[in-house]
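Minutes, project check-in
Item: structure for the 238-residue chain
Input as provided by the requester:
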Amino acid sequence: MSEKKKDKCEICGKDLVYAKVPKEYRNIKCEFCGKLFNANTFCEDGHYICDSCHSKGPIEVIEDICESTDIKDPFLLADMIMQHPKFKMYGPEHHVLTPAVILTSLKNNNIKKSDGTEIAQFDIKEAIRRASKIPGGWCGFYGSCGSGMGSGIAISIFTGATPATDKERTLANKMTSRALAKIADNLEHCCKRSVRLSICEALDFLAEHFHIKLDYHPSKCEFSTLNNKCEKQNCPIF
């Protein structure tokens, strides 16, 4: 008889452990909400996702994590959210992730908006609301990647842009066009790459136009082994 295949951790891919008696249970924090649980199912490396977080949709995950986290590095925050099991390799949730992560990292670094007011949770929710309207496949069907548009949404909210504000509207459009130019790279499309490139361009944009410099350390892509269409060495974030 062949050995039964074990269930895998949805964060790291290692085997799950199922406790059968009380002494095998473990007090462990959920990787996403940070709450402590006495759990009977967890990864052999100690990862755990509570039932509440596991049952949420990707947009809810973005909103909940961005509301509760104190992470200041936008790349670390984006990777954490993209590791959630509700996030697929591709999908329109990445359009929402980009502006939410940019604004959350600015908020957690105590960076104020261009008018001097604080970035509020309302601003992040508004970014999520706007970006949620961008359908999947926009990059190929309409020539405008949703993650790149998400960076423009972040700058629109940061500057208070409306259709009637000349300078602010211009900056939001410049941000989107800059991100899209970087995403248009002749490579196989990848939502993870588009998110990272859009964040990179947004951080450079904020430094150039508003003299805002964040401390961030993008790490090696953690999703290449999960993507059978990964460009490997051809990809700038590989």
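Outcome recorded: Residues 57-234 form one domain.
No further action items on this chain.
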